[in-house]
Amino acid sequence: PYAAHFQKLRLDPEDMVEEMAPAPYAPTFIERLRQWSATVRMLCGARALRPGLTEHLLHRNKPDRRFEAAASAAAPAVEGPDEREALDRRATRYLLGRLQAEAAAAGANLLVVMDAPHEELAAGASPQELNRALETNRLAAEEAELLGVSLLDLSPVFAEDYRGHGKPHGFPQEPAGAGSQWNAYGHAVAARAVAETLDRLGWLRPDPT
Known about the structure:
Elements: E1 8-11, E2 17-20, H1 29-36, H2 38-44, H3 51-58, H4 81-105, E3 111-114, H5 118-122, H6 127-133, H7 135-147, E4 150-153, H8 155-165, H9 184-200
Parallel strand pairs: 3-4
Antiparallel strand pairs: 1-2
Helix pairs in contact: 1-2, 4-7
């Protein structure tokens, strides 16, 4: 799966964190078929003719929902939302701290940029649905504030732009129809927000020393 190639953490009960190197990407047999066969792409794509039948025939593995944070995909199974949030916070705090230390060692400023839940925005999700989709963004913002890390959440930026212009920010994707990979317009919206934030933080002005 796509998330198999992300950085992972192993979180143990003693509050120790172990980094696990990402697995090199290797296309599966079905992915290679999709690259070479238009018929398979029609069956498996975002606009599949018979998506239910395709799932059955190809025996796609269902994603492991025990712990979905990409940074902590190797975490143990959790029993409830409180336990899951605690693991999310540990993983987020560790990674933000690592980024902060690396930036300080390089003499650089660190700005963490969080993407928005584009599918929910494009689908006109209810406030309750949008609230659930933004849980990770809120958690990251809280942990970043505790560490003194600057964080830009693009959710309000993209939401305001979508309300004002109604233009998609990403490409249609498989299997997610709304797409989470920014297109040129989405990059432009994000770039403006990042530039404004850098200017507000005073990081675009030359150091007088």
